């Protein structure tokens, strides 16, 4: 059956059909606790492809699960049958009508892309889940998603005008609101559409009383189907009734959406309260002032924020409500209303967009951050978005807190307080049978509690597998029967997303982490202390929230941004690594070809280590994997050529002219071929005199000592960078010394997974550096500085390695910490941040130093230059390397005028910029050295 189905799909669909173990593993999870292995994944190219795919499934009675960004938290985007991924190709905005304020879209379009398409008209699509950078409209329709602005603009169902849908049996219908006459006419036309419409009309008539009393009682009643839209007073709106059906009734082919006018002014008023209960109790009084948002968070959440830049802007208190308003008058009335509520502690009004952004980031990161509790314990979804009518929020929250205490569960609460929707991820123990049983018991008790407060187990994420089997605890038997009847009208054989909403799969089945699965014993080289030394735990850090599928914003993940393929996202890689540890779908452990292929386009840029909310550190996992994968086996040629570059460079330094003559001669193509290097790449020229040769020939300076880390790249290829560094450091009053012996940070062996050699190299380096204790170590090349700062202690784990790491500073950090005032330059610049520096120290010190030097600098939007050490030089990676550079770096460099200096501290970034634009980028030290050469020298540290 499977093979026939797959063959049939391959013969019918043009967009792509994959049934290899790697793809099946990639699509086995969403952002929930569940794991279900599909039989095959289909990537429809267009409408015809969707129709053809469903027809092929029908011929084999194969169940279908539709999928967008796969960010669902309850398991409704995974299934054991055919997964249709709409996000890959079927993802366009088809039409925008600014006058009618509507847009027509394919279901796979990402919300942010729709927003970008309509922003120019001053319009916006109202529902705004926090996954807006990667969630699709199809997924939003599936879940009836919404976000913080639902107070103003409602849920997805409130913003859908009509849907073009297809049933499992192939009937295509356009549905929307209908008058009685229109409905009768459509039924009279007959056919399968007529049958469906008549059946739904009869259902609405038969269930009138139940629907009126049980459905649509409050805005965030997302659990179950929204049958209230079938009521005559709601104009029998089938489009709205199908929103939130989680792919269980129809496949959405396209959607016509209502747009709203973007508010001209936005201000953020933060109200401080003594605690979460007080904040919740205040909600009804504040909602009466009609803010656009009313979001709540508590102290526990702020403790998890890793970059607490905005925390000091929060007013006093232990819980806060974030109210967005569009006028100062609205702020005043809210403050007045808040002042009359118990536990009010103060307020802060953010009018500056930067201030607002910083504050919002606390709330937005919350969802991801809350996946780890203080102390590192894992926290899971399952009961993460229950909602009650807002007037019951305080009472519900108190009893819910007691319930948590009874189950000894922990979690940080936050959410859409204005609509009574509470987010919390809890410390369920899925690793034990007892913990799993308790999970199910807890869900039952929580559902009964939410029902007692008139609420809904889901307030926005949908029911999925986590909550479908709880619906009987909140809905009457009659209501459950109506929902089952609704489902069968559309999908009589139950083949669309079976197990969700109706005919529920038990919530404790298919759990991703389960005591019954024993991971493979996979010894590791790195220690993974944050994951109890357990690589399986490290790999399952990824909770699937999919921030790595965002196409803009942070640096993560450059390879996904180029290919748009789940396999090339951090999440995809983490999934495969996790599946590798389980040994069921991905067999072969460290030798797995599927994992190797998924890691192939990882640039080891380290961005995920910082940008991923739970710190999935793929660069480290890749090193680990490559080490085991190629152990005692031949490696790709580039591992020998570029992995051993420090050694080859040292040898070349004996006769650099000769080496250059050869590498720049007609023999270059053969050399590149041999070394696995892309033919398009120019081989860098070795300097005729290394920095060390220059430095050792000069007299010793005076002043406070600083140890300059002499990295391979600058020493052998661009010694002028290190010389400029010396010049500036000396002008700042430092006495520059260099390591007593030529040493290497081991980075090139690390990234190519030659961890034995990396360890030996690093051990020697640490021993050498430890011979010069108490002297700060300053690095000019960010990748090497970061390696000394983070990778060396991580790999060696010795006290000496940690001591060394503690002394490492970037060039800018050292100068800023020592209060250096550089000569003032009347310069303008743009700067490319090295992705390793982005992941480690950031660029605050660089910005500070440039500011002190009076440089008018614009940072190029966070991005990877695409070269990333050996990656962009490797033959098979050239195209991706260039495409990554084209995302932000190259356009910014091309747009910069001749009077604008291009700053790039990384050797890779400078090389990429030079090779692809012809512009010479400068290291920050070179820019400052120009000032030192031209003007007076100012220094502050005393010798
Ligand atoms: C960290 C985090 C924060 C979140 N914040 C919010 C939030 O603020 N508000 C909110 O509402 N949700 C939130 N969610 C849940 C989720 O991101 C949203 O519901 C989102 O809209 C799902 O979109 P998606 O493209 O990822 O859909 P998917 O997860 O891929 O699919 C969702 C459902 O839609 C169905 N579906 C997809 N395409 C189609 C189609 N063409 N036809 C029929 N059915 C289809 C799927 O079968 C599935 O049942 C959050 C999730 C996470 C992990
Ligand atoms: S890798 Fe990180 S950002 Fe990507 S889905 Fe996993 S947890 Fe989210
Ligand atoms: S290291 Fe960079 S390329 Fe690799 S997964 Fe992380 S963000 Fe993506």
TrEMBL record:
<dbReference type="GO" id="GO:0008168">
    <property type="term" value="F:methyltransferase activity"/>
</dbReference>
<dbReference type="InterPro" id="IPR016169">
    <property type="entry name" value="FAD-bd_PCMH_sub2"/>
</dbReference>
<dbReference type="InterPro" id="IPR017900">
    <property type="entry name" value="4Fe4S_Fe_S_CS"/>
</dbReference>
<keyword id="KW-0808">Transferase</keyword>
<dbReference type="InterPro" id="IPR016171">
    <property type="entry name" value="Vanillyl_alc_oxidase_C-sub2"/>
</dbReference>
<keyword id="KW-0274">FAD</keyword>
<keyword id="KW-0489">Methyltransferase</keyword>
<dbReference type="GO" id="GO:0032259">
    <property type="term" value="P:methylation"/>
</dbReference>
<dbReference type="GO" id="GO:0051536">
    <property type="term" value="F:iron-sulfur cluster binding"/>
</dbReference>
<dbReference type="InterPro" id="IPR016164">
    <property type="entry name" value="FAD-linked_Oxase-like_C"/>
</dbReference>
<dbReference type="InterPro" id="IPR017896">
    <property type="entry name" value="4Fe4S_Fe-S-bd"/>
</dbReference>
<dbReference type="GO" id="GO:1903457">
    <property type="term" value="P:lactate catabolic process"/>
</dbReference>
<keyword id="KW-0560">Oxidoreductase</keyword>
<feature type="domain" description="FAD-binding PCMH-type">
    <location>
        <begin position="34"/>
        <end position="262"/>
    </location>
</feature>
<keyword id="KW-0408">Iron</keyword>
<dbReference type="GO" id="GO:0071949">
    <property type="term" value="F:FAD binding"/>
</dbReference>
<protein>
    <submittedName>
        <fullName>Dimethylmenaquinone methyltransferase</fullName>
    </submittedName>
</protein>
<dbReference type="GO" id="GO:0004458">
    <property type="term" value="F:D-lactate dehydrogenase (cytochrome) activity"/>
</dbReference>
<dbReference type="InterPro" id="IPR016167">
    <property type="entry name" value="FAD-bd_PCMH_sub1"/>
</dbReference>
<keyword id="KW-0411">Iron-sulfur</keyword>
<dbReference type="InterPro" id="IPR016166">
    <property type="entry name" value="FAD-bd_PCMH"/>
</dbReference>
<dbReference type="GO" id="GO:0046872">
    <property type="term" value="F:metal ion binding"/>
</dbReference>
<dbReference type="Pfam" id="PF13183">
    <property type="entry name" value="Fer4_8"/>
</dbReference>
<feature type="domain" description="4Fe-4S ferredoxin-type">
    <location>
        <begin position="591"/>
        <end position="622"/>
    </location>
</feature>
<dbReference type="GO" id="GO:0008720">
    <property type="term" value="F:D-lactate dehydrogenase (NAD+) activity"/>
</dbReference>
<dbReference type="InterPro" id="IPR036318">
    <property type="entry name" value="FAD-bd_PCMH-like_sf"/>
</dbReference>
<dbReference type="InterPro" id="IPR006094">
    <property type="entry name" value="Oxid_FAD_bind_N"/>
</dbReference>
<dbReference type="Pfam" id="PF02754">
    <property type="entry name" value="CCG"/>
</dbReference>
<keyword id="KW-0479">Metal-binding</keyword>
<dbReference type="Pfam" id="PF02913">
    <property type="entry name" value="FAD-oxidase_C"/>
</dbReference>
<dbReference type="Pfam" id="PF01565">
    <property type="entry name" value="FAD_binding_4"/>
</dbReference>
<keyword id="KW-0285">Flavoprotein</keyword>
<dbReference type="InterPro" id="IPR004017">
    <property type="entry name" value="Cys_rich_dom"/>
</dbReference>
<dbReference type="InterPro" id="IPR004113">
    <property type="entry name" value="FAD-bd_oxidored_4_C"/>
</dbReference>
